[in-house]
Amino acid sequence: MAAPKTLFEKVWEQHIVAEPEGEPALLYIDLHLVHEVTSPQAFEGLRLAGRGVHRPDRTLATVDHNVPTDRERVHIKDPIAAKQIEALRKNCADFGIELFDVNAPEQGIVHMIGPELGATKPGMTIVCGDSHTSTHGAFGALAFGIGTSEVEHVLATQTLPQSRPKTFRISVEGELPHGVTAKDIVLGIIGRIGTAGATGYAVEYAGSAIRALSMEGRMTVCNMSIEAGARAGMIAPDETTFAYLEGRRFAPKGADWERANEEWRKLATDPGASFDRELTIDAHKLSPYVTWGTSPGMVVSVTDTVPDPQVGATEADRNNLARALEYMDLTPGTPIEEIQIDRVFLGSCTNARIEDLRAAAKVVAGYHVHARVSAMVVPGSQQVKAQAEREGLDHIFREAGFDWREPGCSMCLGMNPDILQPGQRCASTSNRNFEGRQGKGGRTHLVSPAMAAAAAIKGHFTDIRTWEYRRAEVMA
Amino acid sequence: MQPFTTLTSIVAPLALSNVDTDQIIPKQFLKRIERTGYEDFLFYDWRQEPGFVLNQPAYKGAQILVAGKNFGCGSSREHAAWALTQYGFRCILAPSFADIFHSNAGKNGLLVITLAEAEIERITLRAKAANGYALSVSLEANTIRDEDGFTTSFAIDPFRRECLLGGLDEIGLTLRHAEAISAYEQRHDQENWLAARA
User: Which of A48, A92, A139, A150 to substitute to test the interface with B, most B CBs within 10 Å?
Assistant: First the structure.
């Protein structure tokens, strides 16, 4: 009998094209997702070298990072952003790549549309010039972010030389307490292992709490793997995965679907397979989290206080803690629930799927946004936006005083006009609280969609576990 | 890619951990479609602070940067490597690097070297004296030394080392395997459960 293997090992080994002596393995890439920001220099490189795109059929493109989220966004006012989008259009046309353009019904954040279209599938290798490519690992794919030189490499060869990461299984066992979400699982993990805790590893998330998550929840967890430094995050495909994929545009149909299911069922980690590292987390002990600093690892429970900067191990660590407190304008010992906010951003490839919007809508239904707070919802894709509108969620948000916008990355990174002003404090469902990430001088606190929604109403953070829901008919 | 063999330069100390690529180059400069012209945007927000290390005359012309752990975390933007090299850095020393940044650096002739925390602290301390503390880095010998007798060796992936020493084009290297790719595809394309579009 063959030695037991992990999910990662199975996918990795199935994609090795060559293993030249003394060099990294040459890995075949099944799906390459392209967007406007990290691709223009790659296409330019192809042209300079007289190379073509090797497999346009394994390449998909959309615009997400710098597109405005207002209704008139077809006419982009920022000439540099407009030129970048125009470059992607020309590159896709010249090299025969399918592009989901600004107002196409399939447009959205690149990590939303891969799964929605059924392009993302179990067992695949998937890359994109974006670090949150780890999202697609929720389907049991090996998916990771790459730089522009690598984008060019994949366009030219459909392969990438890759050194083999180590394996790390994180098992989350038990039932999640009420009010604790997929976002809190991953924030809890990062708080525990640190922002470089998984550097050099491909993480597999396992355990009953992970199995119980919907595909959307699994995507949220895998999405933030990169915030723990992981090369990739993966979850074994199961019935939840297959039910999500069935019938989607690029998913196999008929007899092919049956065959695909058969193959995908073989991917799960074999009993007895060993990992380079293992960690088990008790789901009961997780709570709703709020980041207080300028790194996703600077995170505490909503009922905690801003920590006293413990004496860091190194000068660099001490500098970081002091700098984070100063940048965030926070005093150690302040209860998290007393931190007042100015803005709320519900969006991003971490938390802008339909279940995220439903969870937030349920919280805000029957309430109104706090007088000081400006709150916005940016659905992650056109499909999510349309679905939310069919369910009437847009009305709930608008009635509550939220701004309802068009899909894109938006204020997760503020490449488009959606940015924080200096000094503004934001409860955000996105993935990074770095200095200036959402706008120079802006202060970001990462939370789950329900926590962001509750903060919008209260004007400060509040424990979602004690929330009083006003309109029971709004679906969970 | 510019080959890297040896380098002697003064050292600029950035005594911070988790320096993310948003700090190395903020998002507003990612809208450009060019590959050059990023040097003025390196550490753009931090350079507005007069006391920032790169604003101090003592570190003008430094080609070596020493930083805290997990340097280059966050976004995959290769613009970070472009900004660092175009500003003039050729070598970064830190106790650890984020994976994607590590890979991007190598593809741009930027040598990133992982050293023990104690070594990084020592180098940082010396460099902070702002009296022209310099290091000599040899990729041929895998060593770093200063003029006070400090010397250490460093580990680097052999393939990355060869690419840096030779300034090699990785796409060209991969295309040596064109036949293997084609043979793999003939077989793999039959496995339509892994097709991008079924």
Answer: A150
**Ranges assigned E (strand) in A292-410:** 299-301, 343-346, 374-377, 403-404
Q: Which of A159, A195, A313 is closest, CB to CB, to B70?
A: A195
A-chain residues near B20 (CB < 8 A)? 295, 432, 434
Per-residue pLDDT of chain B (198 residues; tens, 9 = 90+): 889 999 999 999 999 999 999 999 999 999 999 999 999 999 999 999 999 999 999 999 999 999 999 999 999 999 999 999 999 999 999 999 999 999 999 999 999 999 999 999 999 999 999 899 999 999 999 999 999 999 999 999 999 999 999 999 899 999 999 999 999 999 999 998 999 998
Residues 6+ apart with CB under 8 A from B50: none
In what order do the strands lie in the sheet containing B151-153?
Answer: B111-114, B91-94, B64-67, B6-14, B134-138, B143-145, B151-153
Phi, psi angles (nearest 5°) of residue A234: -140, 150
Distance CA(A194)–CA(A229), nearest Å, equals 8
Q: Do B174 and A30 touch (CB under 8 A)?
A: no
Q: Are the beta carbons of B171 and A38 separated by less than 8 Å?
A: no
User: What ipTM was predicted for this assembly?
Assistant: 0.96
Q: Does A251 touch chain B (CB under 8 A)?
A: yes
